[in-house]
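Quick one, C-alpha cells below:
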C-alpha cells in the first residue's frame, strides 16, 4: 500500500474530489473518487473531530473514520488507510478553496496498423490485417470453441503486454461487423493515454478495471448513416452498429487468447467530455490477459431461451 499523499480536484465534476495514495512509481498510485455528498459527509465528520462512517455510491465501499485511522474498504477488494489527523488536515484545506475539474485537451491521431500494407494493395487493407500470421502464440481459429470458452475478466495481468498486432486484429474485426446500409455508423476511440484511462474509470461509475491494458470506446455516429429514415431509427442503427462492432472485437480478443470486460455502465456526457467528441459512446471494451483463466458462466437452457413459432 502506498502513502496517502493528497486531495485533488475530480477530473470531471467540480464538487467532488480524488484522494490519492502514491505508490513507488506513477502506475502504483491508488485513488478514491468522492462525489459531492460523500466529500461533504466526510468533511463534516472530520471537522467535528468525530468518528463515523461514509458509504460510497457503489453501495459497497465504505470509509470508516476512527480516532486514529481512517480506513477505506473498497469494492475492488482493496484496503487503504490514512492517519485521521493527516486526512483531516488535507480535506479541510482542500475545502477552503473553490476547485475546478482538470480538463485536458486531446488530439486523436490517425490509426496505422503495425502490419505493413503494400501500396497497391491499399484497398485490401482489412484482409491484410485479418489474415496476417500471428507473431507468437497459437490463436484459436474455431469460432465455436472461442464462443464456448469466452469468459469476461475484471482482473487483468498487467505484467503481460498486449502486442500491437493483436490490437490491429481486434480493430480490424470491428470493421468486419455488419452495419446498417453498410454506412458504418460508428467510430472507435483507442485510448492509450494513461490519464484519459483514469478519467474513463471515473466516467464508468468508478469501475477500476476500466483502466485496462487496452481500452476501446465504441461510439455511435448517426451522421454517417445516410438513409432516408426518421432520426430515431438512424440513432438505433448507429447504436446497433457500434454494439455489433464491439461484440466482434470482443470475440476477436478471445480468439487471440486475451480476455475482456464490456462496460455498459457509463456516463455518456462525461465520456464525450473526456474524449472531446460529440459522438455518443455505446460501450467501452477493456482488454488484456486475464490473471486467471476461468470457465465460462452458465446460461439458461436453449429450451428456455427460444420460442419456436411454426
Ligand atoms: C450490455 C452490457 C453491459 C455491461 N456492463 C458492464 C459494466 O458496466 N461493468 C461490468 O463489470 N460488466 C459489465 N458487463 C459484463 C457482464 O457482466 C458479463 O458479460 C456477464 O456477467 C456475463 O459474463 P461473461 O461475459 O463472462 O459470459 C456488461 C455486459 C453487457 C453485454
Amino acid at each position: 500500500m502506498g502513502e496517502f499523499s493528497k486531495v485533488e480536484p475530480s477530473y470531471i465534476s467540480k464538487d467532488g474530489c480524488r484522494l490519492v495514495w502514491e505508490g513507488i512509481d506513477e502506475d502504483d498510485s491508488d485513488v478514491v473518487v468522492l462525489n459531492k455528498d460523500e466529500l461533504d459527509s466526510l468533511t463534516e465528520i472530520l471537522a467535528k473531530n468525530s468518528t463515523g462512517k461514509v458509504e460510497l455510491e457503489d453501495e459497497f465501499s465504505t470509509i470508516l473514520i476512527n480516532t486514529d485511522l481512517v480506513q477505506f474498504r473498497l469494492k475492488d477488494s482493496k484496503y487503504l488507510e490514512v492517519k485521521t489527523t493527516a486526512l483531516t488536515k488535507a480535506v479541510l484545506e482542500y475545502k477552503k478553496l473553490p476547485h475546478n475539474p482538470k480538463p485536458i485537451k486531446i488530439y486523436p491521431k490517425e490509426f496505422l496498423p503495425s502490419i505493413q500494407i503494400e501500396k497497391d494493395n491499399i484497398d485490401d487493407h482489412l484482409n491484410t490485417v485479418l489474415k496476417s500470421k500471428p507473431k507468437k502464440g497459437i490463436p484459436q481459429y474455431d469460432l465455436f470453441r472461442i464462443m464456448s470458452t469466452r469468459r469476461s475478466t475484471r482482473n487483468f495481468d498487467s505484467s503481460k503486454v498486449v502486442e500491437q498486432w493483436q490490437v490491429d486484429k481486434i480493430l480490424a474485426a470491428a470493421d468486419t461487423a455488419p452495419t446498417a446500409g453498410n454506412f458504418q455508423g460508428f467510430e472507435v476511440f483507442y485510448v492509450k493515454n494513461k490519464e484519459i484511462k483514469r478519467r474513463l474509470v471515473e466516467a464508468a461509475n468508478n469501475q477500476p478495471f476500466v483502466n485496462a491494458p487496452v481500452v476501446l470506446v465504441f461510439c455511435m455516429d448517426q451522421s454517417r448513416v445516410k438513409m432516408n429514415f426518421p432520426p430515431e431509427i438512424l440513432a438505433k442503427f448507429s447504436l446497433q452498429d457500434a454494439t455489433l462492432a464491439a461484440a466482434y472485437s470482443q470475440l476477436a480478443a478471445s480468439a487471440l487468447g486475451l480476455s475482456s470486460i464490456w462496460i455498459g455502465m457509463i456516463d455518456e456526457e462525461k465520456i464525450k467530455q473526456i474524449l472531446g467528441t460529440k459522438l455518443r459512446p455505446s460501450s467501452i471494451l477493456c482488454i488484456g490477459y486475464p490473471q486467471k483463466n476461468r470457465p465460462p458462466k452458465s446460461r439458461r437452457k436453449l429450451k428456455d431461451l427460444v420460442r419456436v413459432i411454426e
